[in-house]
Amino acid sequence: MGEREPATVVVRGEAVREVPPELALVSVTVEAREADRGTALARLTERAAELRSHLDDFEAAIERRESGGVQIHPELKREKVVAYRAAATTTVMVSDFAALGEILLRLGRLGSASVSGPYWQLKPGSRAGAEVRAEAIGDALRRAREYAAAVGARVDRLIEIADEGAGGVQPVMHRGMAFAAKAESAELDLDLDPAPQTVQASVVVRVSITEPEPTAVHGAPVSE
């Protein structure tokens, strides 16, 4: 008779933690509205350059900035073009929160600019992800030991660890403080307390266990 395969236990482990955000995203859209397309684009170019100049003043506080595509479309009235509106959006990722309030105030006072944010988040590959994964694995192994102990056995060997649903660590959707201003706003009272980010991980762990003791769960004999 062949040797019997060892018994295995499959368990799910979870971990959730709140961590401080690492980035604040701010979206800035500059616009121009003129009677003809060329003038609208020229005006938009000027305003985009002004925006870049202001952002250059905060280079040390900005992790990255990305310019989106330019949009231009005609405004119609009674099927006749009365003006052209052009717009361009820049996404600014701020890592130095001490400068964030000043950045928002500066951008909010720009002519013909709309500002929204900050939207708090973690950096890609944040250390918080690795830490929460380790906690989830620890939770799974603790459960496996409890199951094994319930039948008089112990965990023998780790066979497999898998992200549940192959999703890995998931940042939970959060409500960060949102700031929105038009250029005409004169004074702004900003509450910039960074919103904690909830990060969670879920893993599935499979382990083998030693031969259970020949006693019953809850004291009844194990059937041969």
Key structural traits:
224 residues, alpha+beta, Translation Initiation Factor IF3, Alpha-Beta Plaits, 2 domains, five-stranded antiparallel sheet, four-stranded antiparallel sheet, 3 helices, 41% strand, elongated
List the helices and strands and how they pair.
Blueprint: E1 8-19, E2 23-34, H1 37-56, E3 62-77, E4 80-94, H2 100-108, E5 113-121, H3 127-150, E6 155-163, E7 170-171, E8 179-182, E9 197-209
Antiparallel strand pairs: 1-9, 2-4, 2-5, 3-4, 5-8, 6-9, 7-9
How would you sum up this structure, described in words?
- The chain folds into two domains: 1-22 and 123-172 and 197-224, Protein of unknown function (DUF541), domain 1 (Translation Initiation Factor IF3); 23-121, 2-Layer Sandwich (Alpha-Beta Plaits).
- 24% of the residues lie in helices and 41% in strands.
- The protein contains three helices and nine strands.
- Strands 3-4-2-5-8 form a five-stranded antiparallel sheet.
- A hairpin with a 2-residue loop joins strand 3 (62-77) and strand 4.
Summarize the structure.
With about 220 residues, this protein is an alpha+beta fold.
Mean pLDDT: 84
Termini Cα gap: 16 Å
Number of helices: 3
Query: What is the CATH superfamily classification of the largest domain?
Result: Protein of unknown function (DUF541), domain 1
The first-level CATH class name of the largest domain: Alpha Beta
| Parts with pLDDT < 50 across at least 5 consecutive residues | 173-178, 180-186, 220-224
Looking at the overall shape, the CATH architecture of the largest domain is 2-Layer Sandwich
The major β-sheet equals: 5 strands, antiparallel
- Decide which structural class fits the backbone: alpha+beta
Give the total of beta strands: 9
| Proportion of strand residues | 35-45%
Cα shape: elongated
Helix fraction, binned, reads: 10-25%
**Rg from Cα:** 29 Å
Q: Biggest sheet: strands side by side, in what order? A: 3-4-2-5-8
